[in-house]
Design goal:
heterodimer; A: Rossmann fold; five-stranded parallel sheet; 5 strands; B: mainly alpha; Amino acid/polyamine transporter I; two-stranded antiparallel sheet; 2 strands; 2% strand
């Protein structure tokens, strides 16, 4: 039914994403399609990485570990924004475009999640993306 | 050089850069918690210490106004009078450092790594650095300073064109005009921008090339080593927050007074506390929307709008003013600046104490106390430029813009003063000193005064909004330990807090006292900046070129 699934993640809070990730994995297995994990960062050094390259590497490593764990093909797509908190939504919309994903599976309103995924983010992606969006609560 | 930019700033390959190897993890000292619906991610202890002591400071200033005011004022006077040589010589050092960076191979190092692409176009970048750096000052001083220095300051001993009774002495006019413009451009030209460039370059280098957090303390890594992450670093950051917040809050307070004076002048809206509080609330609300929309959607857009309006006003003044004289004035003022910049920057053997201490050394302290804020902001938007490109664009181009601006506004005003003793500028600068009206006085004697004065008021207000929003971003980043992705609620907090501090000081008095204090932070920061020069060279030396 779908060709590629995009799962936006927050590398700072991977523990809270399990439900969204397993939903994505379930759908990917059903259609036998790949998953792209995307995460948004700033080009300014942050708690996860000192350079954009390091951030890409961490995201790729996460994708690889998920691929091994669940037995689905998965890759990482790092997105960068000048002001990641305020521009998250635009960055994700752009990532959807660039990866060519046609289904977004996204955690929303998960407990302990920082502002990265305010309920409104998922909601806004759902209302602005031109692909299907699956919000996991 | 690339003109390319992407709105989301997806960078190309970063290429070679020399990342500093430290065990410090950005955000490791942060507290993540939530208060009600708001999440927090704040640096301990920078956030708490600076937040609480700012509150304490404001309360103390309000409670003991009469005692505190004179103390801060005396401190500022003492520093700017007795250490004028220190400020002026340090200013020269910063200019020299920048010039050296332009001509040596160190200038080829690229901020963000050898293959980094610029995050912003020239226009967006330039608009932001100008709006944060001095936009508002140009509005306030563009008319005041040239006229004042020509008529009263007698910089480097050049006599005033007016005698004691206010009559014009023809033979003094040409020299006084030239030195008045040169002195003004001196205060708004290479020196202030060199101060910003040094701070911004140091921060950009240690952040984007060395991988350290975007906060003042990172510049000190070559000096403090791992102790940077302990109290020496905390103190630097807390000082930076102090200087920024008090600088912003006092400017916001004074800005509201100027905008109010303008509104009275144009529309007859009386000057009152209520009107000024409404203005501060309005400015803060727009700034809030801007920080919530983020760097690209808010701050950048406002800065660009501002640049366009300012350019329109500039073109109008050039066209409506004495056009031919302004055009030739640009060249002669540039010449006057070039021939006077060295005498003006030597602090010894001069008799012009009032000018040198009251203006030059005050300005240097003021620019330096603003430099953590402007420098952090410029650093954040400058990734992808080479050091040479960076220094030229932060030093040379703004200086030329300042020359054009001062020539247009100051030149027109000087012409009005010299040809018409009844002109409004004469009235507000020379006869009865009311600096906040000087710009409006100049516009009043040109055509379409009510329209242009209104535009000028809007411009003043929007320039304050751009200072307030970029300042909030900067304070938030420092108090989040260099994280730029801390929850949005923190920006809302700082932006609101800034407005509240400004209102408290406006109503309770003490704006002047705290401005004096903010200027006084210029002294410790001058030492900080001199160390930063060393850090820049040390940092650049082991970068791939």
């Amino acid at each position: 039914m779908f060709k590629k699934i995009l799962i936006p993640i927050d590398l700072n809070h991977v523990d809270t994403l399990e439900k969204a990730v397993s939903t994505g994995v379930y759908l990917a297995k059903a259609d036998n399609i790949p998953i792209v994990f995307t995460a948004v960062a700033s080009t300014v050094p942050g708690s996860l990485a000192h350079t954009p390259d390091e951030f890409r590497a961490k995201l790729d490593a996460y994708a690889a570990s998920q691929a091994a764990k669940h037995g689905v093909p998965a890759s990482g797509h790092a997105a960068f924004a000048h002001d990641p908190v305020a521009e998250l939504e635009d960055a994700l919309l752009k990532a959807i475009d660039e990866t060519g994903a046609d289904l977004v599976v996204m955690a929303t309103h998960a407990p302990k999640l920082t502002d990265y995924f305010w309920p409104s983010n998922g909601g806004r992606i759902a209302s602005h993306a031109d692909v299907s969006v699956f919000l996991v609560r | 050089m690339s003109e390319e930019t992407t709105t989301q700033g997806i960078p190309g390959p970063e290429g070679a850069a020399n990342v500093i190897d430290t065990d410090y993890e950005i955000g490791q000292d942060n507290i993540e918690t939530s208060v009600g619906p708001f999440n927090l991610d704040i640096h301990n202890p920078v956030f708490l210490v600076s937040g609480l002591s700012i509150v304490a400071f404001v309360f103390l200033t309000l409670a003991f106004q009469n005692e505190v005011g004179p103390v801060f004022d005396a401190m500022r006077k003492w520093l700017t009078s007795n250490l004028d040589w220190f400020f002026i010589i340090s200013g020269n050092v910063f200019v020299l450092v920048c010039l050296v960076l332009i001509v040596t191979p160190l200038g080829s190092v690229r901020i963000g790594g050898k293959d980094a692409d610029p995050d912003y176009t020239y226009f967006g970048w330039f608009a932001m650095l100008f709006a944060a750096g001095m936009g508002i000052g140009l509005m306030f001083f563009g008319v005041l300073e040239p006229v004042y220095h020509m008529a009263f300051s007698e910089p480097i001993g050049v006599p005033s064109p007016f005698d004691a009774d206010g009559n014009l002495i023809e033979e003094n006019v040409a020299a006084a005009k030239a030195v008045g413009m040169a002195a003004t451009i001196f205060h708004w030209g290479l020196h202030p921008w060199a101060i910003y460039a040094v701070v911004a370059l140091a921060l950009a280098l240690f952040t984007f090339n060395k991988g350290l957090p975007l906060t003042m303390r990172s510049v000190f890594y070559p000096i403090f080593g791992e102790r940077t992450w302990g109290w020496p670093g905390h103190i630097v950051d807390i000082l930076a927050v102090f200087a920024t917040l008090f600088g912003l809050a006092t400017s916001l307070g004074f800005g509201a007074q100027q905008a109010n004076a303008g509104l009275e002048f144009v529309f007859g809206i009386p000057v009152s506390n209520a009107a000024q509080v409404v203005l501060i609330i309005g400015i803060t609300l727009v700034a809030l929307i801007s920080v919530l929309r983020g760097l690209d959607g808010g701050v950048k857009v406002l800065s660009e709008i501002n640049m366009l309006i300012a350019a329109l006003l500039l073109v109008f003044v050039i066209t409506a003013g004495p056009t031919a004289e302004l055009v030739s004035g640009f060249v002669s003022n540039l010449g006057a600046y070039a021939s006077n910049v060295i005498p003006l920057s030597i602090p010894f053997g001069r008799e012009d104490d009032g000018f040198r201490q009251g203006w030059t050394s005050f300005y240097w302290a003021w620019w330096i106390s603003w430099s953590p804020f402007v420098g952090m902001f410029i650093a954040r938007v400058s990734r992808g430029r080479t050091v040479r490109e960076f220094v030229i664009c932060v030093l040379i181009i703004p200086t030329i813009v300042s020359v054009i601006w001062m020539t247009a506004f100051g030149g027109t005003a000087i012409e009005q003063v010299l040809t018409g003793p009844d002109s409004q500028v004469h009235q507000y600068v020379i006869a009865s000193y009311s600096p906040e009206l000087s710009l409006f006085g100049m516009l009043a004697d040109l055509p379409f005064a009510s329209i242009t004065s209104f535009i000028a008021i809007i411009l003043v207000i929007v320039f304050f909004v751009t200072s307030s929003d970029s300042g909030s971003l900067v304070i938030d980043t420092i108090t989040a330990g260099g994280k730029v992705d801390a929850p949005v609620s923190q920006r809302v907090f700082w932006c609101t807090f800034e407005g509240l501090v400004a209102i408290a000081l406006l109503l309770g008095g003490g704006l002047g006292a705290l401005q004096a204090m903010a200027v006084s932070t210029g002294f410790p920061f001058t030492i900080v900046l001199l160390l930063a020069c060393y850090a820049i060279f040390k940092g650049l030396r082991d970068e791939p070129r």
